[in-house]
Amino acid sequence: MTSPFSNSSALSRYGWTQALDDAFAGHREAGLVPARILRVHRGSCDAIAEHGPVRATIPASRSADPVDAPCTGDWAALRPDRDPELVALLARRSSVVRASAARSSHGQVLAANVDTVVVAVSLAAPLNAARLERFLALGWAGGARPVIALTKADLAADAAAVESEVRSLAPGVDIVVTSVATGQGMDVLAALLGEGTTVLLGPSGVGKSSIGNALLGEELLATGAVRAQDGKGRHTTVRRELVPLRAGGVLIDTPGLRAVSLHDAADGLEQVFAEIERLAESCRFGDCAHDTEPGCAVQAAIRAGEVAERRLDGYRKLQREAAWEAARTDARLRGDRVNRQKAITSHLRATYKFRDQQL
Ligand code: GDP
Ligand code: ZN
Q: Within the chain, where are the H helices?
């Protein structure tokens, strides 16, 4: 308790909690100090420690699996030498993982220890239900809680209609109607995020940076308007991958998260389509495809008007995508390089076709 590094108050702004402090006890006894990783470079990382920012070496001996590699949001145990070294990572509570599509079948962790995934959906554009479902699935899959922010309410033709459609797509998910222009919903959103760690997901232009800045209370993230003024090719001077929010809590914003589009959604599937999964348990056949099989409870519910047909379509699409990811992972685990390459090639073709139809 009297160690020079035992004052964790500086880290609490970055999400450090008593539970983490307890989990860290053994590392402290070994003379290590906690730090949260801001960004990772080749062979090193920038982190925020109790006494301020540090650059730590990542030993080459760490596992080559990208899922185990340190990433933004991880809590690390550092040896506090003149050249600090990353010795261990605390177990992740949750993460945002993308299956890195083209190059390998490894999952890619985009952010670690994320409590809330805010899926941003613009009210100023037609709703893309399939895309919303995927982003939700990504949130569930990594163990975070999704929240939907309907953005640009000031530009909406009929916000209430979209809100009720979104509600039917995402039962049990908190939905906040927001406008950065009028300030609508921002307090509600800030309260929902609380002290935890948040990421903002959604396609470019929906207002993620604007919401981020409103939550930060500062114009730290370059919004579309500013990016356009800057002109193409000019890099923003400072990147803030992990920043404390005004109301407590922490926002993670990385280039990887900004680029997220296709996801490893297998685990999230059940929760996004909870009512279909529940109905499926009552189908006569265990492997019912909910198509023309006799005794299909899902089709019965559709006929009875209890489930919308497009919910089943969305479920099928996401299931195909998840099956594809699973197939690639299996191939990787078998270490069967030839099969894997074949599978990836054919699956990629199918996926690009699928994606083109979807997005
Ligand atoms: P991002 O690409 O998702 O980060 O989106 P940005 O935050 O950069 O916003 C894209 C554009 O939408 C910018 O020109 C913003 O000024 C504008 N915008 C964002 N939020 C709102 C809003 O609530 N109302 C209005 N009218 N415009 C907004
Ligand atoms: Zn069925």
A: 9-12, 18-23, 25-29, 129-141, 159-169, 186-193, 208-216, 224-230, 255-258, 266-272, 274-280, 297-303, 309-334, 337-358
Q: Of the residues 73, 89, 105, which one is the last residue of a structural domain?
A: 89
Residue 246 has pLDDT above 80, yes or no: yes
What's the pTM value of the predicted model, to 2 decimals? 0.74
Burial of 195 by CB count in 10 Å (0-12 exposed, 13-18 middle, 19+ buried)? Answer: middle
According to DSSP, residue 165 is labeled H
Q: State yes or no: pLDDT of 353 exceeds 90.
A: no
Residues 195 and 164 in one domain: yes
pLDDT given at position 140: 79
204: phi then psi, degrees, rounded to nearest 5: -60, 140
Q: What's the CATH number where 148 sits?
A: 3.40.50.300
| Residue 213 Cβ contacting ligand 1 at under 6 Å | no
DSSP 236: P
Name residue 126's amino acid. Answer: P
Instruction: Check residue 215 and give its pLDDT.
Output: 93
Ligand 1 pocket test: which of 204, 210, 240 has the largest number of ligand atoms within 8 Å of its C-beta? 210
Residue 297 is encoded by which pair of tokens? Answer: 């409870």
In ligand 1, the atom with minimum distance to the C-alpha of 228 is 14
Atom 14, ligand 1: which residue's CA is nearest? 225
Same structural domain for residues 105 and 72? Answer: no
Residue 238 lies in a domain: yes
pLDDT for 97-153, tens place per residue? 775 433 344 557 889 999 999 999 999 999 988 788 878 888 877 788 899 999 999
State in Å: Cα 132 to ligand 1 middle.
18
For ligand 1, is residue 229 a contact (CB within 6 Å)? no
More confident residue, 244 or 228: 244
Range of the domain at 210: 95-253
Q: Is the pLDDT of residue 275 over 50?
A: yes
- What is the CB neighbour count within 10 angstroms for residue 246? 11
pLDDT of residue 347: 53
Total domain count for the chain? 2
